[in-house]
Amino acid sequence: MTKKFLPVILIAFFLAALAFLFLPRQNDSKLLSLMSTPTLKLTLAIAETKIMVELADSTEAMRLGLGERDSLPENEGMLFDYGTKRPAVFWMKGMRFPLDIIWIADGVVVQIDEKIPHEPGVAEQNLKMYPSNQEVDSVLEVNAGFTKKNNIKVGDLITIAN
């Protein structure tokens, strides 16, 4: 009788092993959803400068931001659109390169923080915080030096480019 069930037991064990190796585990669900969901990109115009931006369109994308990336292509950025005005605070958790942060309210640049350094090896609780100096409805992260190179300044209008 044992010989009859041995192939069935072996097949069941094999299928269970495959399922363990290839089916997503609960901890992987957020990562899998980020990897499988196409990221919305659009082109913005800031004064005369066009920039391709990735929209941080979920809570997880906003939490991660540009963290854990090695670089950002030139003339690209990440846009955080809150929908309504609110105070905002950013930090450089997981960042591997410096940034300029452009704070936006009603389609107008209201604040620029330039050349914010990444902080490798700094404990999370010791990371410097970068607050908006007024309520904003959007924030744009770009490579450090982008705002100076492109003469972006407070008061510039930001629009969706064609």
From TrEMBL:
Pfam families: DUF192 (PF02643). It comes from the Bacteria. This is DUF192 domain-containing protein. InterPro entries: DUF192 (IPR003795), Saro_0823-like_sf (IPR038695).
